[in-house]
Amino acid sequence: MTGNSERLLIETTTAWGIPLSEHQYAQFQRYLDELIIWNDRFNLTAIRDRSAMIRRHLLDSLYLARDWRTAPANLIDIGSGAGFPALPLKIAYPTLPVTLVEATGKKAAFLRHVIECLELTDVRVLNERIEIVGRNPAEREQYEVVTARAVAELRVLVEYALPLLRMGGRLLAPKGHDPADEIAAAQHALHALGGEVSAYEPVHIPGEEPRSLVIITKIAPTPSRFPRAIGIPARRPL
């Protein structure tokens, strides 16, 4: 990989303690190549500039692993869209089992295409609504980490995510510069669903506005009635 934006990816991930091989950098480049091609047809992301994609998609995704000592046992990503943050994390940690949940067919098709192009293994795409996935006994309470980026406000997101987490598991939710109001509004939902905010920290991506990462830990079982039926969590947040 060459050019200023590619050097930024290399230098930033190295500074974060996420060592990447030449093969992994090549996978990131192919990923962006395919995203740009498919984006012309299916509008998968509003970001069209390759340098901005590296900053706002790749680095923003990889930041979630900045403090990992070892990869988690598994990870499920809600509302995966074009694959962020889960696919960059999968590229960086090739043995990490990853499940992508995407309800829109064209986006799910893109995810499967990229997985095949990059020859990624132990990664699944579920073309389902998250409310259905969360009530599936094969998926419920199976995951150490849930990720979700730009899916919903926090009080809605926790109803999607917490049923999927095993006890002690974590939801990693990238948010805007100051998530304090969202966190406050989510307290009732967190209490009902068995979660607590264990941390939120500022995220600084070179060349981008400050953002934050909210980390929620599952501390109690989620009642079996959650998540509610399709569309209810968004229409009637807890």
Automatic annotation (TrEMBL):
Give one GO term, molecular function aspect: rRNA (guanine-N7-)-methyltransferase activity
Which locations, inside or outside the cell, does it occupy? Cytoplasm
UniProt entry tagged with the keyword rRNA processing: yes
User: What's the chief localization of this chain?
Assistant: cytoplasm
Amino-acid positions noted as binding S-adenosyl-L-methionine in the UniProt annotation, renumbered to this chain: G79, F84, E102, A103, T104, I130, E131, R149
Coiled-coil positions: none
Q: Which InterPro entries does the entry link to?
A: rRNA_ssu_MeTfrase_G (IPR003682), SAM-dependent_MTases_sf (IPR029063)
Q: Which domain of life is it from?
A: Bacteria
**Which cellular component, as a GO term, is one annotated location?**
cytosol
Question: Sorted alphabetically, which keywords does the UniProt record give?
Answer: Cytoplasm, Methyltransferase, rRNA processing, S-adenosyl-L-methionine, Transferase
What EC number(s) would the UniProt record show? 2.1.1.-
Enzyme class, first EC level, given as a word: transferase
Give one Pfam family. GidB
Q: Per its database record, what is this protein's job?
A: Specifically methylates the N7 position of a guanine in 16S rRNA.
Provide the family line: Belongs to the methyltransferase superfamily. RNA methyltransferase RsmG family.
Record protein name field:
Ribosomal RNA small subunit methyltransferase G
Write the lineage as a comma-separated list.
Bacteria, Bacillati, Chloroflexota, Chloroflexia, Chloroflexales
Q: Which gene encodes it?
A: rsmG
